[in-house]
């Protein structure tokens, strides 16, 4: 890493830009819907955040310039390995990732699951493109730098800073299409940020880290959202070519008997199947409504279905058996 141009009294924060609306460019300042995500370089974005250099010494790099709706597992692996390398550098005190909001909940949880450092890792983005009136990106960036630079952010897992709130990666969901897209009424609001001031009120309780894969691919795991009168054939179709399937079931991960029969067929073929819930705050209780262990089924606790998918991919890649996989869902 090149030497920092440093103010010795400030922490060193590495900024990794991936694209998203925060780097979006529209044809006019009044246009906040039709724009090109990831169009602007991180240097341009930083220039729109006056005062940020009083919070931290920043070193920025552009790892991707994509719409996060287009992100792939290969991007996740590349990003995670880059962030891991930055965190291992003694001169780096924290990492900030700029990311599109569409899949921020998955990338944040992926990073949380694989990275083991206690140093702060923060993600932020924006709902309005950088060229919009009242763009939310610059303030989100200023706040995210404050949080990444604050020693109180150590050991809290991967954080998302959005709309003045500090949110845990665990359970994060994009909930809205307005600028407070991640307002967390779920499990994860840890604190608030106001300019340079950072206030924490909660501490995450679940284990994290340790699942960095050694290879450069992950086993395919698919996700199916259940609904009333869904044909059981979809359960089989959803698992085609996959090593795992997450079922966003009804209520407590409930499955109609013919869906359960299809699930048993998949399990007999060696596919790992997780019962999750499509209920936004839903929790799936293991071995209660269903004899999960006897059926060879896994249950997702209250992980969101996309986050359960991330965990299942990483757990299968780690070679875990059903007991080990269930341990992941129960402890994280
Ligand atoms: N607000 C956003 O960032 C969404 C825009 C874009 N689809 C992305 O996720 O990158």
From TrEMBL:
The active site is at 21, 101. Residues 221-329 form the Asparaginase/glutaminase C-terminal domain. It comes from the Bacteria. The keyword tRNA processing does not apply. Residues 12-205 form the L-asparaginase N-terminal domain. SMART domains: Asparaginase (SM00870). Coiled coil: none annotated. Keywords: Hydrolase. Belongs to the asparaginase 1 family. This is Asparaginase. It comes from Leeia speluncae. The lineage of its organism: Bacteria, Pseudomonadati, Pseudomonadota, Betaproteobacteria, Neisseriales.
């Amino acid at each position: 890493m090149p030497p920092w141009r440093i103010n010795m009294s400030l922490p060193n924060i590495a900024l990794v830009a991936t694209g998203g609306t925060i780097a979006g460019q529209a044809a006019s300042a009044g246009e906040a819907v039709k724009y090109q995500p990831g169009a602007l370089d991180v240097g341009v974005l930083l220039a729109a955040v006056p005062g940020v250099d009083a919070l931290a010494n920043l070193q920025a790099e552009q790892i991707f310039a994509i719409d996060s709706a287009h992100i792939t597992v290969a991007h996740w692996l590349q990003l995670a390995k880059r962030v891991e390398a930055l965190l291992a550098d003694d001169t780096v005190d924290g990492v900030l990732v700029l990311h599109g909001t569409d899949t921020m909940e998955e990338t944040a949880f992926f990073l949380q699951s694989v990275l083991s450092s206690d140093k702060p890792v923060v993600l932020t983005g924006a709902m309005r493109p950088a060229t919009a009136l009242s763009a939310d990106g610059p303030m989100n960036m200023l706040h995210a730098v404050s949080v990444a630079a604050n020693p109180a952010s150590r050991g809290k897992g991967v954080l998302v800073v959005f709309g003045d709130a500090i949110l845990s990666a665990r359970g994060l969901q994009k909930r809205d299409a307005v600028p407070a897209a991640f307002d967390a009424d779920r499990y994860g609001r840890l604190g608030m940020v106001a300019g340079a001031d950072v206030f924490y009120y909660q501490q995450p309780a679940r284990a994290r880290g340790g699942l960095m894969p050694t290879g450069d691919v992950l086993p395919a795991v698919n996700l199916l959202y259940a609904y009333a009168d869904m044909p059981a054939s979809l359960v089989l179709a959803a698992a085609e070519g996959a090593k795992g399937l997450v079922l966003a079931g009804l209520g407590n991960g409930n499955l109609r008997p013919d869906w359960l029969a299809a699930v048993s067929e998949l399990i007999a073929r060696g596919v790992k199947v997780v019962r999750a819930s499509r209920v936004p705050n839903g929790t799936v209780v293991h071995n209660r409504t269903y004899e999960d262990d006897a059926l060879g089924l896994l249950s997702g606790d209250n992980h969101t279905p996309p986050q359960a998918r991330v965990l299942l991919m990483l757990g299968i890649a780690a070679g875990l058996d059903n007991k080990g996989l269930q341990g992941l869902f129960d402890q994280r």
